Amino acid sequence: MKILITGAAGFLGRRLAKALLAGAPGLPEVTTLVAVDTVACPIDDPRVECQTGTITDDRFTASIVESHVDVVYHLAAVVSGQAETDFDLGMRVNVDATRALLEACRRLETPPRFIFTSTLAVFGGPLPAIVPDDAAVVPQSSYGSEKAIVELLVNEYSRKGFVDGIVCRLPTVAVRPGAPNAAASSFVSGIIREPLAGIDTVCPVPLDTPLWISSPALVTSNLVHAARVQTSDLEDRRMVNVPGLSVTPADMLDSLERVAGAAVRARVRCELDRRIMHIVCTWPGAFDVSRALRLGFSADRDIDSLVREFMTGRRDGRHE
C-alpha cells in the first residue's frame, strides 16, 4: 500500500506516519509513505519518501501524486488563529491548494481513499445542545468557513467518483507537547502542559466554555481507522464527527489538580482574550457520535486519562 500524507512533519503527521508504518490491523502493509511538508519529515525508515515543498505550488502538488497512491491523508493547513488574521493565506492554503490536490488525485487511474481532517469549527450559530453529523454548517470564522468549503469539495469529488473521500471532523487535540502555535485553541493544551512544566499560564476564555477534545493517541488511532471504513457504510454522508470528550477549562483544571496537585493548578489564571473568545466560543462542545462509533471510531475514557497520558509521555521522553 502506498500512502501520501500532507503535513507529515507536523505533530499529528509524524504520529500518523509512525502508526501506519508500524502496521495496522485490517490494512495492507505500507510499502511507500510519501511524506509531504515544507520541511523534511524526521522519520528514519526506508519506506519513507520525503517530498519538501508547498502545496500552494500546483506543479509541486501534481508531482507528489504523479503515480499510483492508495490513500491520501490531507493534514496540511493554516490553523485557526492565523487563518483569521490572514484571510488570503488561509484561502490559498486551506481551499485553493486542497482543490489542486483533489485535482491531482482525480488524474490517478484508480481513485484513492482521500482522508481530510476537518474541524468542529465548521459549526456555529444556533445549534442543538448535542450536535449531530448532519447539522447545518454555519461557521463563524475564516478557518471554519475554509474547512466547510473543502468538506463540500470532498463530498462532490467522491460523488463523481474522482476520490473515495471521508471527512474527519476532529476534536481539539489535547494535550499537545511542544510550544504553543497560532491555533485559537492552543490554550487547551497550554493550561495542562505549561503548569506541569512549572510555567505560569493563562486561560483566555471563561472557565465554563464548552470544549470538545481528544487525546493525541486516540486522534491518531481514529485517523488510521478512517482508511479502513467501508464506503458503503458512509452512505451519502462523507462527513463524520470524530468522538471526543465534552469538557470545560474548569473540568480540565480540576483534573490537573487531582492528578498533579493544587500547586500545579495554581499556575493557571483566567485572563479573557476577546480575539480568542470570538473564535472559540462559537464552537459547540458536545456531539452525537453514535454514527462514528458504529463506523468503528473510538472515544477517550475521561479527562483524567488524557492528563495522565501526557504526563506519562513527558516522563518517558516520548513527546516530540
Whole-number radius of gyration?
A: 19 Å
Question: How many strands in all?
Answer: 12
Task: Tell me the helix content.
Answer: 40-55%
What order do the SSEs take from the amino end to the carboxyl end, as H and E?
Answer: EHEEHEHHEHEEHEEHHEEHHEHHH
- What's the N-to-C terminus distance? 27 Å
Largest sheet: 7 strands, parallel
**SSE-based structural type:** alpha/beta
- Assembly type of the shown chains? single chain
- Which of globular, elongated, flat, extended, rod-shaped describes the shape? globular
Question: How large is the share of residues in beta strands?
Answer: 15-25%
Q: Which residues form runs of ≥5 with pLDDT under 50?
A: none
Largest beta sheet: strand ordering: 3-2-1-4-5-6-10
Tally of helical runs? 13
Overall pLDDT metric: 95
If you had to describe this structure to a student in words, what would you say it looks like?
With 320 residues, this protein is of the alpha/beta class. The protein is 41% helix and 16% strand. It has 13 helices and twelve strands. The protein has helices spanning 11-22, 58-64, 80-85, 87-106, 142-159, 186-196, 216-226, 231-234, 249-260, 262-265, 274-280, 290-294, 303-315; strands at 2-6, 32-37, 48-52, 71-74, 113-119, 164-170, 172-173, 201-203, 211-214, 239-241, 245-247, 268-270. Strands 3-2-1-4-5-6-10 form a seven-stranded parallel sheet, sandwiched between helices. It is globular. The model has no long low-confidence stretch (mean pLDDT 95).
